[in-house]
Amino acid sequence: LKVGVIISGGGSNLQALIDAAAAPDLPAEIGLVISNNAGAYGLERARKAGIATKVIDHRTYPDRESFDRDLTVALEKAGVELVCLAGFLRVLTDEFVNHWRDRMINIHPSLLPKYKGLHTHKRAIEAGEEYHGCTVHYVRPDLDTGPLLLQARVPVLEGDTPEILAGRVLEKEHLIYPEALRKIALGEITVEGETPMVNGHPG
Ligand code: GRF
C-alpha cells in the first residue's frame, strides 16, 4: 500500500508511521511526505528516512481549490493510494476530500465525536472530563467527522495542564495511528458500518 503523509509541523505522528512502515511485516510504504510549511521538522524526519518530500505552501496560492489541486497532483504522481493527515492544520475543500473519499484518514486528539476542532485538551479539562483521548477516522467534508477507525482513551488527572494531557494523548496517537495503517494495509478494514474500535476492541 503506497501511503502519502501530509503534515504541517513536528511530525511525531509521521515518525510513528515511518517506523511502522519500516517493519517488514507491514505491507505499506510511505512514498511521499508533503508539508504546507517549509520549516516543518517532519520534513527532516522524512529526509532522514529517505522518503521523498515536497513543500506545497498554501501561502503561495490564490485560493484553497488551487492549493488542494496541487496536493492531488503530487500525491497521484507519487502513486499514493492512502493519504494520512498527521498534524496537518489546513481545512481541505469538499472537492479534495470527496476525491480521496475512503482513501484519506486523520488523527484527531479527542474522543470523537466529542471535542471537534482545536484546543481539545484545554476544553476537556475545563469541562471536567474524566477521560480524554484520540481518534483515527476517515476524513469527510465536515471537519473532524467521518467513520471512526480506532480510538484510545486516557484518564484526565488532578492537576493536568493542557500540555501534560496533550503529552499523555500524543503517546496513544503514536500507537493507534500505525495500528490503523496496519489494519488498512492488511485489508482488515471496511469503511461503512465499521464499528468503532476502542483500545483495539470493537467499541
Ligand atoms: C498533535 O497535537 C496531535 O494531537 C495532532 O497534531 C499535533 C501535532 O502532531 N494530530 P505531530 O507531532 O505533528 O504529529
TrEMBL record:
- What top-level branch of life does the organism fall under? Bacteria
Identify the residues that bind (6R)-10-formyltetrahydrofolate.
64, 106
**Gene Ontology molecular functions:** phosphoribosylglycinamide formyltransferase activity
Q: Name one Pfam family in it.
A: Formyl_trans_N
Describe its function: Catalyzes the transfer of a formyl group from 10-formyltetrahydrofolate to 5-phospho-ribosyl-glycinamide (GAR), producing 5-phospho-ribosyl-N-formylglycinamide (FGAR) and tetrahydrofolate.
> What residues sit in the active site?
108
Q: GO BP, one example?
A: 'de novo' IMP biosynthetic process
* Catalytic activities: N(1)-(5-phospho-beta-D-ribosyl)glycinamide + (6R)-10-formyltetrahydrofolate = N(2)-formyl-N(1)-(5-phospho-beta-D-ribosyl)glycinamide + (6S)-5,6,7,8-tetrahydrofolate + H(+)
Q: Which GO terms describe its cellular component?
A: cytosol
Record HAMAP family: PurN (MF_01930)
Metabolic or biological pathway, per its Swiss-Prot or TrEMBL entry: Purine metabolism; IMP biosynthesis via de novo pathway; N(2)-formyl-N(1)-(5-phospho-D-ribosyl)glycinamide from N(1)-(5-phospho-D-ribosyl)glycinamide (10-formyl THF route): step 1/1
Biological source species: Aestuariispira insulae
Enzyme category, top tier: transferase
Has the keyword Transferase been applied to this entry? yes
Q: What is its EC number?
A: 2.1.2.2
Site (Raises pKa of active site His) at 144
**Signal sequence: where?**
none
Q: Which NCBIfam families match?
A: PurN (TIGR00639)
Write down what this protein is called.
Phosphoribosylglycinamide formyltransferase
Which keywords has UniProt assigned to this entry?
A: Purine biosynthesis, Transferase
Sequence similarity: Belongs to the GART family.
